[in-house]
Each structure stands twice: as structure tokens, then as C-alpha cells.
Amino acid sequence: MRSEQEMMERILAVAREDDRVLAAYLKGSRANPAAPKDRYQDFDVMYVVTETVGFLSDTTWLNQFGSIMLRQEQDDDFGYGDRFGIRGRSQESYSWLLIFDDGNRIDIGVETTACLQSGRNRNKLFVPLLDKAGCLPPLPPPSDVDFHVKPPEEKRFYGCCNEFFWSLCDVLKGIARDELPFAMTTYHSLTRSMLEQMLAWYVGCRTEFSLSCGKLNKYLKRYLPEDTYAAYTQIYSDGDYVHFQEGISAACKLFRKTALLVAAHLNYRYPQEIEDGFYRYQDILRHL
User: Using CA atoms, how far apart are residues 163 and 195, in angstroms rounded to an integer?
Assistant: First the structure.
């Protein structure tokens, strides 16, 4: 695997040698002073360019970064462009995700100066790398403050509690029907996301809302108490329905414990009636 220095030198060399590139800046975790540094980090780079069309019409310039093993680009079906709603904007900006045969990964984008000035593709995680045209804006040192856990309004806290138990009703119905794909997908896409939201608020309460739990809450293990994180690991299960029910029970216990702590810290009321309604519904299904 090429070193960080080797990769950065290659990224800068490509930018310097291409007259269409006006400037380059670094984004993502490598621009985040609070992110742990390791060999798995991507190189999230944006080139500010005179126009984007040429970069799309002939993509052989991407080979300058190394031998590409896997790639995905902004307008691919089912790709990140779909997830983030950025397909069809190639005239203003476009990007490619590249994994090379040495294991390194570059997420490289091109954007026009107009797009740069709009700030559409950047946030406070911004490190200038090269500015041949003097077009990069003066910004303060990089910070992940935009991604810090934010304290919820009481109605949002209530909504999280409601969605956690409401979605679990669908999970139980899917189990009762022996519809494992529906039950498992609902559990992990809806129920678990609400649990993780509550855990993130709990982390915020413990830290005065001064940090980020990372993309998809990947830093929960770093910031939760050891016993709380151990309880979190118990919510996962295999395809066995008995184990699945055990995971659901663990999720309910952890959600309640965490939500009560968050409610106490923020002086909110925990909606016990929602939890009670869920357990009544669970009893009905058990007796059918």
C-alpha cells in the first residue's frame, strides 16, 4: 500500500500538470483533526476546474492515480449519487470513487468555480492543497463542528421514541408472518436507527454536545460507557427468530434506559404510554 505522502504527492502532481485544474482541496476524515488516523482513510479530494465536460468525456486521466481495481461514479444506478440526490449535475460538479490495487482509495471530484463559490460541495472540513488561480476562499482551520451531535427539541425526542416502538410493531408483525426480510430490514433500517439516534443524544448529553459520533455513528464505541456499548452489541442477531426476539428485547431495554437519561438531562418527559402501547401490541400478537 502506498503511503499517505506518496498518495498526496500523486494527487498534487496530477493537479499541477493539468491546466484545466485551477485549485485542489482536501475534504473528509483526513481533513478532520478529531478523526482517528489510520491506513483505511480515504483521500477525499476536490479539484476546482475550468469546466467539467472534458473530465467526463475522457476519464483516462483517472489512471494517473494508480491501477483502478473498483470504481463507482456519481451517476451510477444505485450508487452514492442516488443516495445523496446529486445525479444529473455533471455540468457543475462530478465525482468518482476509486479503489486501487494496493488498497488505497481516492474519492475525487471536479467542480467549477461557480460551484466552489456556492459552497455546495464543502463544509468546515476544508484543507487547501493547491491554488493556481487564487480562487479558494479563506476559511478558518478545519473543524467537524457541523457534524456535532445537536440537542433535540422535545418534539423530536418524542418522535424518536414514537418511531422506535412504532417500527418495532411492524418488526413483530413480520416475525409473526415468517417474513424475515421485511422484519429484519425494518428492524435495522428504522428501529436501530432510532436507537442509535438516542445513543448519540446520550453521548451529546455526556459531552455537552461537543463532538461528532461519526458517519453512521461509527464512533459510538469510543464515547459510550463500556457497559452501555456492550448492551448495544446484544441488539444484533442472526436469522433465528428466537435470537431475533432476544435482540429486540435487548434493544428495548437499552432504548428505555438511554431515553430516560436523555429526558432527565434535557428536562423532557419520557412518553411511557408509547412503550406501554407497544408491549400491549406484543402481547396481542403472542396470543393470536
Answer: 10
Question: Is 125 strand, coil or helix?
Answer: coil
Q: Dihedrals φ, ψ of 135, to 5°?
A: -105, -10
CB 258 within 8 A of CB 203: no
Domains of the chain: 4-144 (3.30.460.10), 148-287 (1.20.120.330)
- The dihedrals phi and psi of 152, each to the nearest 5 degrees, come to -80, 150
**How far is it, in rounded angstroms, from Cα 129 to Cα 280?**
59
- Spatial strand order of the sheet with 21-27 comes to 68-73, 93-100, 105-112, 43-49, 21-27, 127-131
According to DSSP, residue 177 is labeled T
124-151 pLDDT, tens digit each:
899 999 999 999 999 889 999 999 999 9
Residue 121 has pLDDT above 90, yes or no: no
Q: How far is CA 239 from CA 42, 166, 167, 188, 235, in A?
A: 33, 22, 19, 13, 13
Query: Distance from CA of residue 247 to its chain's centroid?
Result: 24
Write out pLDDT tens, residues 18-63: 999 999 999 999 999 989 899 999 999 999 999 999 999 999 999 9
pTM, 2 dp: 0.90
